[in-house]
Amino acid sequence: MKQMAKPALTLYLAAPRGFCAGVDRAIQIVERALAKYGAPVFVRHEIVHNRHVVQSLEARGAIFIDEIDQVTPGRPVVFSAHGVPKSVPEAAQDQGLFYIDATCPLVSKVHIEAQRHHAQGSEVVLIGHAGHPEVIGTMGQLPAGAVSLLETADDADKFQPRDATRLAYITQTTLSVDDTAEIIAALRRRFPDIAGPPREDICYATSNRQTAVKAIAAKCDVLLVLGAPNSSNSMRLVEVAMRAGCPRPLLVQNAAELDMASFQGIRSLGVTAGASAPEILVQEVLDAFELHYDTQIEEVAVTREDIEFKLPRALLD
Predict the structure, then answer these.
(1) 104-138 per-position pLDDT tens digit
(2) Count of domains in the chain?
């Protein structure tokens, strides 16, 4: 019996995609801590928002916890890439714990900006998503009530500062570039003298991945974003794809979540990955589609990334 030919599928692979320098550094920190100090190494919250990464580190001896009072005395604890409120390292010191801070340096930059504005007497506005670990960590750099959180342009229109002449804004690093620009524009219309960061707070990796998605979205019947539902940068990629003209952007965590029957009839597929999703998950998706389609892969690169962040000194010897 003659085997039916596979339908043709053009597969657009966005670049850059996947791990950023901050995520790569955070994972290396846990791996090196395990190599240097042995298991277990405790990690407060998910080191990055990806179950594949978390489970692979658990298999090597990492224990993920909610709060540092769950740390076994004498064992190291790592703080996640998203950053933590000041109260967390202070509590660790009080308990005599050895901790390693894996906060992304670009998040630490935002923390420093918040502290500088506050020290200069400015009221600080944070553009971000309520409840996200990065937002909790950033707001926790200053005393309670010192930071006002704005999530939308409507929030910016309604915001009433204590003193409109002493106002500064910072942003979460993993936001939609376009949404954030809209919120900043609303603030600047109302408060022309508001101070901002010397360079935008949205990180290079978030911006690059969104630009890459915009470059392929309109060509794609479906665009898959490999990432976790609690990953801010991954969720923003889905939104960006929709706005850029893809009729069906989808967030999937891995190839096992694919319902291949639901893709019947498509002729073009886009694939990208959030900054905390490893490339192996992308390859598994490509392999799944190659089983069912005659795929022609076209990588669309908008830039190349070569940024690396140094590891903490405690792990270098």
Answers:
(1) 999 999 999 999 999 999 999 999 999 999 999 99
(2) 3
DSSP the chain: -PPPPPPEEEEEEEES-S--HHHHHHHHHHHHHHHHH-S-EEEES-SSS-HHHHHHHHHTTEEEESSGGGSPTTS-EEE-TT---THHHHHHHHTT--EEE---HHHHHHHHHHHHHHHTTPEEEEES-TT-HHHHHHHTTS-TTSEEEE-SHHHHHH---S-TTSEEEEE-TTS-HHHHHHHHHHHHHH-TT-B--SS-SS-HHHHHHHHHHHHHGGG-SEEEEES-TT-HHHHHHHHHHHHTT-S-EEEESSGGG--GGGGTT--EEEEEE-TTS-HHHHHHHHHHHHHHSEEEEEEEES-------PPPGGGT-
Q: 162 and 88 in one domain? A: no
Whether 239 is catalytic:
no
Considering the domain architecture, whether residues 13 and 34 belong to the same structural domain is answered as no
Same domain? For 151 and 214 the reply is: no
Q: Which of 46, 113, 123, 134 is catalytic?
A: 134
* Residue 29 domain boundaries: 21-104
